[in-house]
Specification:
Length: 91
């Protein structure tokens, strides 16, 4: 079953590593939510309010963000991603 969160108020919610594949979040409010490493494959976020949300390393293949308010959304930070992936050199 896929989540139906249309119109939900999730401002400042922690959605870190959450799998919301196929979910419907149309018109949901996710202001300043932390969706780091969350997945939104085939999800609907039409008209969602995403202002200031953190989408670092978030995946959303075929997600529908039509009409979403995205001002100030943080996307993947390349330097932070490189630091997260860093591995020590083996001796």
């Amino acid at each position: 079953m896929q989540a139906a969160l249309d119109g939900a108020t999730l401002d400042e919610a922690s959605l870190v590593s959450t799998r919301l594949d196929g979910a419907s979040l149309a018109d949901a409010h996710l202001r300043y939510a932390n969706a780091t490493r969350a997945t939104f494959h085939r999800a609907t976020l039409r008209g969602a309010v995403l202002e200031g949300a953190n989408f670092h390393r978030t995946a959303g293949l075929d997600a529908d963000f039509g009409g979403a308010q995205v001002s100030g959304v943080k996307t993947t930070d390349a330097a932070l991603a490189a630091a997260e992936d860093w591995q020590p050199v083996a001796d």
